[in-house]
Amino acid sequence: MTFLDYAAAPESRALLTLRSEYGLFINGEFVAGGGAPFATISPATEEHLTSIATATEEDIATAVAAARRAYDTVWSRMPARDRGKYLYRIARLVQERSRELAVAESLDNGKPIKESRDVDIPLVAAWFFSYAGWADKLDYAGLGANPRSLGVAAQIIPWNFPLLMLAWKIAPALATGNTVVLKPAETTSLTALLFAEILQQAELPPGVVNIITGAGATGAALVAHEDVDKVAFTGSTEVGRSIARQVAGTSKRLTLELGGKAANIVFDDAPLDEAIEGIVNGIFFNQGQVCCAGSRLLVQENIHDEVIERLQSRLATLRLGDPLDKNTDIGALNSREQLERITELAAVGEAEGAQRWSSVCDIPTTGFWFAPTIFTGVHTSSRIAREEIFGPVLSVLTFRTTAEAIAKANNTPYGLSAGIWSEKGSRVLAVADALRAGVVWANTFNRFDPTSPFGGYKESGYGREGGRHGLAAYLTASGDNAPLRTAAETQGGVQ
Ligand code: NAP
Ligand code: MG
């Protein structure tokens, strides 16, 4: 079969002006960091984009002190409706600068521009709009009258949805009256620093949000700082565990959004055209570097061959290449480290006896790339059925009965998300009820909405982000053993 050729359709970089170096964003200003600066590159071309500061323990102390001061003197005293106005302003500025942010995100992360432009950045704005509306309605958050903010929140985010994870963290924290010190991932700090410029444009009071950059050690030092009241972490289960150990025995509150190994379950009565699109979206969106990716396909045995055949012919049409090209479906992986891990796990899959199929793509000679890959004949005990690969690799298992599908889907240490494909509503509801997963999609996959809670069971973490539930992570219900409130707060600041 031959396919139409596409002409190159690159998005212009003209809107994006990068500085040659970026400092830390502390107390409303960019300041030099005490550590050695590091480079951020485009994972598609390995082009050097800019140089980024490393925060030392002293820098972290300065940032936390700025957040504390802003909490005590400004943010906790401010009428809640005014806090809301700042969040609306940030949301509108994100919309105004959306093309620039999308280009920066695709350059720095490697994800296709059609995803950053149509998914990531619109959701960032939606998150700020949604939580802006909550700021003066916290009495209706289900936590009783006058729920209280916690104080200074330390927030650490991963590289797969850099600006979106920032929005998931900062929007609810600010709406509930907390101040923030946020650390983005080392390989994708760029859009967080552009976001800092947006905060300056929005004239957010200095110190309400501070952004400190650096590697894992910077994150660990932030978590360890004694004047932090709340730690919110999204990342790997391994680092989540170490953070849980670090804050154990302190008064710090903790929420963890960790890894996943979601089952995407296709019954034989499923609308197959849609299911194929849903399987593709489930595992190849963002090159599969998605915590809630549908990485385990559970397909009913009698339609297995048809589903695989249709999936392979669909995957043959996906275009891998320049993330800034508007026709690109599969961009670059975020880092060499990520590529090596995926390559290793795919080799394990073959060694364990599963059948490997990869779509034929022209792999660019620079950057980090992996062709969309499907493993069939995967056993439940196989490492590629159990471990999070975090890449464009689908493991296919089969089932005969609904009970078997449920048992296999739940046979994982994780519990973040799942998908069900069936024409029969009663079956969808019954299966969803039996799945131990925080989010269950029915006849769709990877849909996100700021009003819908997101979070895990088991080793996928605890706490919820999004919606009314997401507010609880940053509030103390009246009557709880709350941290001391400042005089200002008692005088009616947090409403
Ligand atoms: P990671 O290594 O755990 O890193 C996440 C963040 O933590 C990064 O900012 C990282 O900094 C920092 N960090 C590393 N070591 C730390 C330490 N000891 N103390 C404090 N912070 C530390 O995870 P990743 O590999 O970047 O991200 C992929 C993982 O995140 C996957 O497992 C995925 O499932 C999970 N994830 C979960 C969700 C969710 O909502 N549940 C969403 C997205 C991703 P550096 O980058 O500078 O090392
Ligand atoms: Mg980068």
How many beta strands in the DSSP annotation?
20
Radius of gyration: 23 Å
Number of domains: 2
Please describe the biggest sheet, giving its number of strands, its sense, and whether it closes into a barrel.
7 strands, mixed
Oligomeric state of shown chains: single chain
Distance between the termini: 63 Å
Small molecules (ligands, ions, cofactors) in the structure:
NADP nicotinamide-adenine-dinucleotide phosphate, magnesium ion
Biggest sheet: strand arrangement: 14-15-16-13-12-17-18
The overall pLDDT, averaged over residues, is: 95
Are there runs of 5+ residues with pLDDT below 50, and where?
A: 482-495
The CATH topology assignment of the largest domain is Aldehyde Dehydrogenase, Chain A, domain 1
CATH superfamily of the largest domain: Aldehyde Dehydrogenase, Chain A, domain 1
Question: What structural class should be given to the helix and strand makeup?
Answer: alpha/beta
Percent range for helical residues?
Answer: 25-40%
Shape: globular
Per DSSP, what share of the residues sits in E-state strands of 2 or more residues? 15-25%
CATH architecture of the largest domain: 3-Layer(aba) Sandwich
- The CATH class of the largest domain, by name, is Alpha Beta
Task: List the total number of helices.
Answer: 16
